[in-house]
Amino acid sequence: MMDFNKQLKKLKKGDWVKVIWLDAATISKVPIDVNINEIPIATVTETVGQFIGILKDEKFHAPHFIVVTERSGDTETWTSIPLVLLKKVVRLVEKEALKSLKVCTKNGGFEGVSTILLKARPEGYWYEKKGTTQKKC
Prior knowledge:
This protein is mainly β and 137 residues long.
């Protein structure tokens, strides 16, 4: 298996990726007398998008994996994940990435992210094609 750091160095700006990482979590209503080993505490998160790069923050100098997760017009939404939280990065081809995002269009096909606004919602993924209204896939 390839060394994780070597794998990250092979990524190029614009590569489609699925990032599996650990996120923080708040665990509510835990009974006082519960055994700590009985409660799952890991929050495994998957993020799909286009790789931008690995940047260090100015305050702590910690490297962050940056992924574009949404585009709308001439703006983007970035997800910044500290490298220490990364568990796995899988390079995808565009079609795999869009399937993973559950992006669909009117005709049921897939389109490039440059023409679709991706919106993650608790109830599922939505798309907005230029000049149309939002529809659930």
